[in-house]
Amino acid sequence: MKLLLHICCAPCSVMCIKKLHDDDISVTGYWYNPNIHPYTEYQSRLAALKGYSESINMPMIYNDFYGLRLFLKQIEGNIDNRCGICYEERLTAVAKEAKKDGFDAFSTTLLISPYQQHEKIKIIGERIGNEIGIRFYYVDFRDFFREGQRIARSLPLYMQKYCGCIFSEEERYFSKTQTRK
Hints:
five-stranded parallel beta sheet; globular; Rossmann fold; single chain
């Protein structure tokens, strides 16, 4: 099977790629993350992935669009569903690319993170796959999250401290006891 794998960051990709290869799946990576803020964070994650993918000789497709304004427009008035909107944007882009380039399926490294809304990713991915006419390949990679992080640190790969969007950065620093206005 030829799979186009959306990659949110190099550290999350390590064990996803290994497990897919172990299952004899041919993986091409796909970078598209218009939600990442600030631009310097976006650049750090992109550079880390470029270096890592080259080191393991993995083919990549880079949709290098810094889309903070697009992301903010999409979630305006619906901030509480920002993750769903973000998943929708990224999974739609990878599914369209996979269909266009003749892949058998698409997936995402978001499925390794215990911090993501796993069931929502699965539902959105399957719906998009049905709409576009390409299979969403679902794997629950969460059991490999800590091992992947350990390997990423040993390489060393750039390790981010939050999901990527401006709101996850806020949550990183904002005390849960404070009241948002």
